[in-house]
Design goal:
Length: 204
């Protein structure tokens, strides 16, 4: 491989193993930049992604114009593998939080609490962040066809986070439970819908 050769991979599954083997059998001493992105499909269209990178720092600096075109900021996190691990950790936090939101809204529905009142109160509290607010509105409308992150992709990331936790011998009890909730949602036939559809699973 030429010393000037570089490539980018955004596939989460593959990058978990990049520390052990890279395409074409290249050495990790070659110029290599791992890149992951945080953000929804809408944020991607608006150029508001957060780019997480690891690997060759000089290459990271050379790619600043690319990162500015696709996102609002880019982070260099160190050796190859750290971008993927950071991305998985952020996604497991999202995944666990979304299951909590879905179960809370399901309980509110069972209690006969007005969804309009609940959403108004929700938006006036410290819970009101863009991610949860968008998911709450999806759930209230029961419209999961406008996909920001498909349920199968969410469940894949939860599973990969659990695989990483096995390597690190770090218990992830909430992640394990949330993963089962997403699997149940997929079993009910919700593949291709936004992960917020996990709310429908909480009603069965």
């Amino acid at each position: 491989m030429s010393p000037s050769y570089c490539f980018y991979i955004y596939n989460t599954f593959y990058l978990l193993y990049v520390r052990f083997e890279t395409p074409c059998g290249c050495s990790l001493n070659d110029e290599y930049l791992e890149a992951q992105v945080q953000g929804s499909r809408q944020e991607a269209e608006q150029g508001d992604l957060v780019v997480l990178t690891a690997g060759d720092k000089e290459l990271f600096m050379d790619c600043q114009s690319c990162f500015k075109a696709m996102g609002k900021t880019a982070f260099f996190l160190g050796d190859v593998g750290y971008a993927t691990k950071t991305n998985l950790i952020l996604n497991l936090i999202k995944g666990i939080t979304l299951v909590g939101l879905a179960e809370g809204l399901s309980l509110a529905d069972r209690c006969g609490i007005s969804s309009t009142d609940l959403l108004n109160i929700f938006q006036l509290t410290s819970l009101n962040c863009k991610y949860l607010n968008d998911k709450a509105e999806m759930i209230f409308k029961k419209d999961f066809k406008h996909v920001q992150q498909a349920i199968e992709h969410m469940q894949k990331d939860m599973k990969l986070a659990l695989d990483l936790s096995d390597q690190m011998k770090q218990p992830l009890l909430m992640t394990s439970t949330a993963n089962e909730v997403y699997k149940h949602g997929r079993r009910l036939g919700y593949d291709g819908f936004d992960a917020a559809c996990v709310y429908m699973r909480t009603r069965h």
